[in-house]
Amino acid sequence: MVKDELTYKIIGCAMEVHNTLGNGFQEVIYQRCLAIELQNAGIEFIREKEQEIYYKGTHVGTRRADFVIPEQLTIELKATINLEDVHLAQAKNYVVAYDFPKGLLINFGANSLQYKLIFNPKYNQKV
Asked: First and final CA of the chain: distance in angstroms?
């Protein structure tokens, strides 16, 4: 996994939340706590920014990633026992929909924090 300074800082913020709260809370609690940690780390973000989805040029709906780091990456949070393929697919869809080169999928529900760096296939994998 290639981690740049930004993803490293975000994962550190998530680790702080997980180390403080542990697992067992609802996703929204982790989202609120991560927002505090991101703000404390000086990371600019938007919570639940809507993104329009188009199919062959026709607007078909909207989606919201949990966090958007403007023009850089999406962060999708989960609070489940284990990450599943459906969670990875959702995180990848957000990265594609927002047209960012990468995103992070973070799971607070396991005993240890789980995270995956997701890449947009449109971009070179050397992000």
From this structure: 10
Question: What is the reported pTM?
Answer: 0.89
CATH number, domain of 49, equals 3.90.320.10
Q: Which domain holds residue 103?
A: 5-119
Phi, psi of 41 (to 5 degrees): -85, 0
Mean pLDDT of the chain: 92
In-domain check, residue 124: no
d(CA 26, CA 80): 9
